[in-house]
Amino acid sequence: MAVTGTKGGGMDEQAREQALLTALTTEHFVLQTSRSATIAESVGRATVFLTMLSAALIGLGFVSTSGQLLKPYLGAVVPTLVITGLFTFGRLVQTMVENELDLQRIQRIRAYYHRQFAGEHDFFADAVLDGDLQRAEWAAVGNRPSRWQLLLTTGAMVGAVNALLIGLAATLLTGLTGGSPKLAVAVGVAVALVAFGAQVAYIQRASISLG
Question: Which run of H or of E encompasses 74?
């Protein structure tokens, strides 16, 4: 009777390769599912936040003709939107990092496919760019490594909205404390730019795709 395996019941090389391929195929599927989940969560959270913002703007239209209601309304709504926006931004950055990590792991698996099975073909070739995992990750989505690409993320979009809201809050506070309209606008613009820059810097520090 033929015996498969080595002494002591160990797996032979072919069986080991087959088991590894099965495990990698399963892991590839799990990682792709995880990426889909992070994307869906990002879209959902951004949608909820922007829906809140839209509802707040609609409400502003109703109270804008009443001086007695306008200030209390803005005092209640603007801080709520800022806090919600910052929490949303924080989670969007987390999902971005999770997505990057999943993609890097997928590219490592695809690199294995290329080395083991592609032969003279160029299948999965984008996963083995001189062994540079970060370049391979960017190649998988058709881009080159660049910090500017992070401005196109959902987190950066919500960060821009947050910056506008924070700038608006600064403008209102400056006006309420007796500042002139020009001063209030200048302060609001400056605060908004600083807030946006801080959030972009946070995204860049958190990203694992830029080294």
Answer: helix 67-113
Q: What is the pTM of this model?
A: 0.84
Helix (H, G, I), strand (E, B) or coil at 13: helix
Residue 29 tokens, joined: 């599927």
Q: Which residues have C-beta within 8 Å of that of residue 53, sequence separation ≥ 6? A: 81, 161
Nearest to 210 by CA among 122, 100, 114, 108: 100
- For tokens 């490592």, the residue is 108
Contact 84/97 with Cβ under 8 angstroms? no
Q: How far apart are CA 124 and CA 121, in angstroms?
A: 9
The burial class, CB within 10 Å (0-12 / 13-18 / 19+), for 203 is buried
Residue 100, both tokens: 């990057």
Cβ-Cβ contacts under 8 Å for 8 (sequence gap 6 or more): none
**Interval 151-174: pLDDT, tens:** 989 999 999 999 999 999 999 999
User: pLDDT tens-digit profile of 28-64?
Assistant: 999 999 999 999 999 999 999 999 999 999 999 888 8
- Distance from C-alpha of 155 to C-alpha of 63, rounded to nearest angstrom: 31
Q: Where are the domains of the chain?
A: 13-206
- CB neighbour class for 24 (10 Å; exposed up to 12, middle 13-18, buried from 19): middle
